[in-house]
Amino acid sequence: MDKDRLKKIKKIVLKKNPLVFDRLTEKQKTQAFKFNETYKKFLNLSKTERKAARQIIQAAEAQGFVNIDTLPTKSSTPIKKVYKVSQGRCVALATLGEESLVSGTNIIASHIDSPRLDLKQNPVYEDLSMGLMKTHYYGGIRKYHWLAMPLALHGVIVKANNEKINITIGEDEDDPVFTVTDLLPHLAGKTQADKKISDVFKGEKLNLVAGSIPLGSDEEKDRFKLGVLNLLYEKYGMTEEDFISAEIEAVPAGNARDIGFDRSMIGSYGQDDRVCAFTSLKALLGKKNTNKTAIALFFDKEEIGSEGSSGAKSNFLEDFMSDLLFIKGQDTDNRSLRKALINSSCLSADVNAAMDPDFKEVHEILNAAKLGFGVCMTKFTGVGGKSGSSDASAEFVGKIRQIFNKNKIVWQTGELGKIDEGGGGTVAKFLAKSGMNVLDCGPAVLSMHSPFEVSSKADVYMTYLGYKAFYSDND
Ligand code: MN
Ligand code: MN
After folding, report:
1. Residue 312: nearest ligand to its CA?
2. Closest ligand to residue 350's CA
3. What is the dihedral angle through the alpha carbons of 23, 26, 29, 34, rounded to the nearest 10 degrees?
4. Measured in angstroms, how far is the CA atom of residue 246 from the centroid of ligand 1?
5. CA 430 – ligand 1 centroid, Å
6. What class does CATH assign to 8-114+269-471?
């Protein structure tokens, strides 16, 4: 076969796997870097689900979105941009389109909770010459990641008199931080060296160092604990019992950073899944009024199974859709609601694992996502034989693929690791339950669930463009 013909065949039959940076023009590259500057700011201000929710609401309100639960029952002017909040930790935004909701909406669903250490309900105690605080980890962490590093406290406390206070300690340069101590290598031999990781790092040993100046004389019992509690009382007027009605999260202190000589990547806590929250937020806010209604959902509790009233297993989307039917003046009966849901198209916006150069063995190279190769479509997740997964239909994957190709979105596909290597899931299956089409779609990251997750700026930008194309092109 002559060379030209072979070249032609190769061009036709082989799948292209372009690198985003090879495809971006200089102008687009500048735009991508600029976009990532605002992304880093969002990450820095969104260290908890509550703070992320607040950032999302503020950005939406600045563009004229109104809280659907505070609207008068009858309004003379048609309302186009609304939001809804649940528990301060779960948000939905919608831009209402001209078309009836019953013919379906375009939904992008991400989550804004991330793995971390929560303070226990009775956290403060003392040992030796220190005041300490007990934590209970949240989500899938590798416990050793959280040792010997500066941690900040973010949270909310509801006092006995019902006063609510927000705290952030450890993010300002002048703030103190907290830390979980680790064993020195000199003495780790017998206790740790030859043991399994799960036997070495225990949840009950993830305790925060919180102070070392006692209150009172050395005859005083618990004077290091008292030292800590006294400072909390002086600063916040809070008592030991107030921890009962509080949500305080220890998260890595400090800001998102550029990685690499070329600054092409971002290292930060919480990119799973605030990268999808931010990119879908931007895609929705930038959307002009169109035919179909566009919805962005930002769920809580994904990392612990999407449970509870702010997780994707709740009726939050149904309630929101029912509210939308109402303000649009449509029938709000159960059948209309079910039709609106079943006819909707949804991208489950979550990260996938990028292939790690140091741990290639857990991935299958032909089907693993790679950093810098664009937004990743994940047809199914799950464990073992796709167990527990919502497997997107060929038709729906085909539709998204067409939208992406038409809009020159650089995309790739990914499976979460080799078969039987492990696995995971997203909110996809909880949304698919109502009958709508759902496909997992988001950037691939390195060091997922660590205190310093790594994303590619090119992928972040391409994810944003992909979501924008989905909203606009599926109209
Ligand atoms: Mn996730
Ligand atoms: Mn996760």
Report:
1. 1
2. 1
3. -160
4. 25
5. 14
6. alpha beta
